[in-house]
């Protein structure tokens, strides 16, 4: 499905007032999450919100005990509903869960995320106060081992991901996108569900349609979500390569609606490739050092200096091992994302799938 490019609205659309305690439907796509699902579901069901609540789990074809755990959770609590997601993809699962839900507020949740107890209450208050179609908060990554902690440190640093307000502690206000998101169902009905053809970056694409239809997307830093990232550099690389490739699809589709920062990692990869080629030519004597060729080493030198500075500035590191892991994580993020982006720009991303959680 090719969605048309959208023009900027002439004025902001106003949604109907919310009741004091609207019912809330949590929607969660799930695949191979046996180690995280129960805790994620418990944080949802334990939300300190007085309105009606339900949780719809869209179950992909997991190869571990995830679906059995989900069935046990549903048997224990009637607020939990299960729906099959044979396509496995996140947008398809979200759409199925939304279709099987019933309340006017939709809260996207993730099996690797844990909500603060007051998350829903604060989000609904923000929706009511500012008239937003979608509200999101701060994603704070956490880790349990040396590598996952390094990945979490880089997630939480502007040197790792940068850009989106939800990676930091910014001030409340209109936003480009929202992490996970708490939506008005009537706004989703107006602009359409998640695009099933966008397998990564689906949140940003939906928020773009909200904004270009005239709805408000709002960042509320009082909302906190703990996110447990990939636990190995190999899985992180696969995740970020796929993310970069699908971001390129959004660039190809929406053009100038994409912020400039999306182009930075791809530009970095091109610069480092040029530097590597120049270094090889210089080291083998094909071209002389006493020439203009060494100027092509500038991207490599600048990036090495940048990684050194970033590694020194990122907090919560203990000793040389943590610093080495931090540097390795930053480079994995940047180069995997940038390589995926270039792949997506040239060839598209149809065959690119994030298999970092697929066994």
Task: Explain what this protein looks like in three dimensions.
By secondary structure, this protein is an alpha/beta fold. The protein has two domains: 24-229, Spore Coat Polysaccharide Biosynthesis Protein SpsA, Chain A (Alpha-Beta Complex); 256-347, no CATH class. The protein is 44% helix and 14% strand. It has helices at residues 37-45, 66-76, 90-99, 119-130, 146-155, 185-191, 202-213, 233-254, 264-283, 298-313, 319-347, and strands at 24-30, 53-59, 80-84, 105-108, 113-115, 134-141, 173-174, 182-184, 217-227. Strands 1, 2, 3, 4, 5, 6, 7, 8 and 9 form a nine-stranded mixed beta sheet that branches. β1 (24-30), α1 (37-45) and β2 (53-59) form a beta-alpha-beta unit. The longest helix is centred in the last third of the chain and has 29 residues, at 319-347. Residues 1-7 have low confidence and may be disordered.
Present the secondary structure layout.
Layout: E1 24-30, H1 37-45, E2 53-59, H2 66-76, E3 80-84, H3 90-99, E4 105-108, E5 113-115, H4 119-130, E6 134-141, H5 146-155, E7 173-174, E8 182-184, H6 185-191, H7 202-213, E9 217-227, H8 233-254, H9 264-283, H10 298-313, H11 319-347
Parallel strand pairs: 1-2, 1-4, 2-3, 6-9
Antiparallel strand pairs: 4-8, 5-9, 6-8, 7-9
Helix pairs in contact: 5-11, 8-11, 9-10, 9-11, 10-11
